[in-house]
Write a structure and sequence with these properties.
By secondary structure, the protein is α/β, with parallel strands linked by helices. About 35% of the residues lie in helices and about 15% in strands. Helix 1 links the parallel strand 1 and strand 2. About 10% of the residues are buried.
Length: about 130
């Protein structure tokens, strides 16, 4: 890289909520983020990605704790204590995904779409963070 080269980083996030969180935590600007649904990037190349030389893929489906499983686990605490078991069994907790945000859709199809996009715009390096 030359001394005068400017490294421009564009973060691709799936939701505005993620963008706001990154702006707050990393003190970056909105101009450095691109809100895009990775599961349906399609054939349109986001303008912010023109001329990109590298891509780091960090997207991942995020499970949410089932409130019902938490409630059931908390109800078992008194019985578990009386029977000499651990008060709270974390293995009783269940997780679920928001509609359309399943691992197959986000982690598999979304990563394929991002890699295809990288090929289309001529990105030299793709790093997949798992």
């Amino acid at each position: 890289m030359h001394e005068n080269s400017k490294v421009e980083v564009v973060g691709l996030v799936r939701t505005e909520e993620s963008a706001k969180k990154l702006i707050k935590e990393k003190k970056c600007g909105l101009a450095e983020l691109l809100v895009c649904d990775v599961t349906s990037i399609g054939t349109d190349v986001p303008k912010a990605m023109d001329g990109a030389e590298a891509m780091v893929i960090c997207t991942s489906a995020v499970p949410a704790l089932s409130k019902m499983s938490m409630f059931r686990s908390l109800l078992k605490v008194p019985v578990n204590i009386l029977t000499g078991k651990k008060a709270f069994n974390f293995r009783d907790l269940k997780f679920k995904y928001k509609p359309g945000q399943y691992p197959e859709k986000v982690d598999y199809e979304g990563q394929i779409a991002q890699i295809d996009l990288a090929k289309k715009i001529g990105v030299d390096h793709v790093v997949l963070v798992r």
